[in-house]
Amino acid sequence: xxAGFSQAGKISGKIKDAKTNDxxxxxxxxxxxxxxxxxxxVEGTFVFTVPAGTYTIDVSYSGFQTxxxxxxxxxxxxxxxxxxxx
Length: 86
Hints:
Helices cover 0% and strands 55% of the residues. The protein has 86 residues and is mostly beta strands.
């Protein structure tokens, strides 16, 4: 096992349209303060593997206002789930 690996956790989530409840495929999710960004899958989901700590993400999609989610707490070896409606 790699040193420090057990200190990692995950942030995962699903991005939806608040009006229609449809998932948003290809939405951009950026981890503030990190050089990490992903696009949502065909299910509207994303995942980051990060060291334990507290994080902020920015979620954007064409035609929608960018939404910032703060105080996402990641614990070692745990999955923190976030649902975002734009």
